[in-house]
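pls design
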């Protein structure tokens, strides 16, 4: 009888349900299916032509907008972007030329000052008007 009490009836263990694992499996299957669909779609010539059209439309609009702004600025007698870039480059070159002129002017001025100092006559000393006491007058 003790054997009967100690022996437990065999129970089949129910598989543990893991909702996270189930979610991961569903997501993996969905991702595989979506990747296959996307690869099949992107591999077609129709998709390539559509992407080409979609990228050309904004570029064409941008070009037209640039031309319109250029005409508008010209009507207002204002410089365009290209003209402003050109003006900026010219100003940079003028600033560089001015810096070279300033450097040369400083070197010429320093050289002239050094030459003036070296060729200047020695400063004359004030005349000595005080005479030393004579030996005769002191005795």
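designed seq:
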């Amino acid at each position: 009888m003790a054997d009967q009490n100690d022996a437990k009836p065999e129970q089949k263990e129910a598989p543990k349900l893991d909702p996270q694992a189930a979610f991961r499996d569903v997501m993996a299957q969905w991702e595989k299916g979506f990747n296959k669909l996307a690869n099949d779609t992107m591999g077609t010539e129709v998709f390539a032509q559509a992407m080409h059209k979609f990228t050309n439309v904004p570029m064409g609009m941008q070009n037209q907008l640039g031309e319109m702004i250029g005409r508008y600025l010209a009507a207002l007698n204002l410089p365009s972007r290209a003209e402003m870039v050109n003006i900026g480059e010219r100003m940079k070159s003028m600033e560089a030329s001015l810096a070279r002129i300033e450097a040369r002017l400083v070197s010429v001025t320093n050289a002239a000052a050094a030459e003036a100092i070296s060729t200047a006559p020695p400063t004359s000393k004030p005349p000595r008007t005080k005479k030393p006491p004579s030996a005769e007058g002191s005795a």
